[in-house]
Amino acid sequence: MSNSINLIDSFQEFKEFKNIDRPTVISVLEEVFRSMIRRKYGTDENCDVIVNPDNGDLEIWRTRVVVEDGFSEDDDLEIELADAHKYDPDLEVGDDYIEEITLESFGRRAILAARQTLVSKILELEKDEVFKKYKDREGELITGEVYQIWKKETLVLDDDGNELILPKTEQIPADYFKKGDTIRAVVHKVEMANANPRIIISRTAPEFLQRLFELEVPEIFDGLITIRKIVREPGERAKVAVESYDDRIDPVGACVGMKGSRIHGIVRELRNENIDVINYTNNTQLYIQRALSPARIGSIKLDDEHKTAAVYLKSDQVSLAIGRGGHNIKLAGKLTGYEIDVYREAEEVEEDVDIEEFADEIDGWIIDELKRVGLDTAKSVLALSVDDLVRRTDLEENTIHEIIQVLQAEFE
């Protein structure tokens, strides 16, 4: 009709509705205009609002009952016969008088108010839709583009332009991004903050490593291999316990791939994080033994009540079991659920011990000084007198006495 208003043209903001289906938008538009009708006429019960979903045309039809002159009790619901005859001389008392209401008749101020209401309602709907969409995707792997980098977090945009937050705490320490980079992460947490959805993504969560395994290892994706547990020190080391329900499938071999082909891609994505893939077992001793890989274990004493394990191994295996920065033993404990303590095997007490084994008690520069003069084991140091050690090294006598005390304690 000539005076129908094309809403899509009138309200430019709504040409593209992100994340919102058209029927929902039409419903919002209809409600906004019904609100305008109620403000102007007191009621919308006798009005039909029709929004064409194909082209956005709007029609508003108002119906009033024709009453005898002087008997109208409510001008919003009734029209006197004389007034009705101005528009249609054939109308009689009791007939319905139907008229079309144009958008312009509401006045410029009301239209601007409606426009503002529409904007806020649509934005609110969009926020709700984004929240629901990502709430359902928690733990899923997503890809986004780095848009802005701040000190404590990085802003990432998904394919629809939704904002995702990657906090510094959820980044691998070696991560380095610049604007425009494509990154992968998992949806970690979705919350509403000040009526806005805040979508936190993570590259340090165990789920991130799990999703990468699912991408690289078809047997995991197909359910032939199950990941029982993942523990990580992001950027340093990870341990993944896997299990196969098919005896013909080696779960560790399938995860690593030929010559490490499958795991190499994951390691690169995790900035060279060391990944130990372990065959899960219900045998606790064997599980702990595998969890402490690559160290070779001599024996294990378990205390199931207190969930502790005393692990005995050869001297040259102690540092392997503990790992750099203690990561290996810490992760093995998290993986198995046992607090693990390592001990040198008793029969090796009288054997010599590498000077590097005392790194926790003797400063590194002192160890370097001893090794510089060829003293690279505990007994080689103890074999010399204090005067000899002072003469051969740049160490002070007090320091020498302290070193001897530490080394002798090892053999007592």
Automatic annotation (TrEMBL):
The Gene Ontology terms for molecular function here are:
DNA-binding transcription factor activity; RNA binding
Q: What does this protein do?
A: Participates in both transcription termination and antitermination.
Family the entry assigns: Belongs to the NusA family.
| Protein name, as recorded | Transcription termination/antitermination protein NusA
Q: Where is the S1 motif domain?
A: 139-204
Superkingdom, according to UniProt?
Bacteria
PROSITE patterns reported for this sequence: KH_TYPE_1, S1
Species assigned in the record: Parapedobacter koreensis
Name of the gene encoding the protein in the UniProt record: nusA
Tell me the SMART domains matching this sequence: S1
Q: How does it assemble?
A: Monomer. Binds directly to the core enzyme of the DNA-dependent RNA polymerase and to nascent RNA.
